[in-house]
Amino acid sequence: MWIYTVSGFYSIVEDRDDPDLLLVRARVKGDIQRLWPQAEVAFTPDHDYAYRCLLPRRIVGHAVSEAIKQVGYHSYKDAVRDKRRSIDYLKVWTAMVEMQSVLE
Prior knowledge:
Layout: E1 2-5, E2 8-14, E3 21-26, H1 31-35, E4 42-43, E5 51-56, H2 57-69, H3 76-79, H4 86-103
Antiparallel strand pairs: 1-2, 2-3, 3-5, 4-5
């Protein structure tokens, strides 16, 4: 699962060894701690995501639920806090617009 919030981008998958844990991955330092301040984040520069941690499903779900409750904007792109991300998020948005056209 990919999740984009106004303060970060996350890739979340099930742990290979324990289905009660989720592997939360991020590309930017500090993103994981924004949603999970208690997380012990490992720096993994040789992997596709440079930052990762294992967390219980319920902890991940709670943080994502809270992020949803905090949505108070009418334009996601305008609400992104770190404007340096805007160009990359716009590229994702554009790719999804193209996908919509192709798949419909």
